Amino acid sequence: MYLEIFAAIGLILLFTAFYLENTGKYDKKHIKYNLFNTIGSLILGIYAVIVMNYIFIILEFIWFGISLYYILINIPSITKIDFYKTNTHPHENHLHEHKEHHEQQKQENI
How many domains does the chain have? Predict the structure, then answer.
């Protein structure tokens, strides 16, 4: 019984990713889309190992690998932080102003 619930969670995650991508809510590069696929396929891959379904093992671990790959290649865009836009400390606001002033000077010199 618990094994079927475990597998159902993986299946729900895969169907959720499929639904969200096909309805246009997420694209294939969206972190949640790839997390749902990665976690769901890992769960179903573990289930396949337990029940010894070899074709299903291959399918799920390839699915897992591809989904994980897309998470890893998109990490820089997920974690990219623009220091000047996130800077909220009052004594450091001059850095943002300095950057804007410097960019204005560049534009004027062109």
Answer: 2
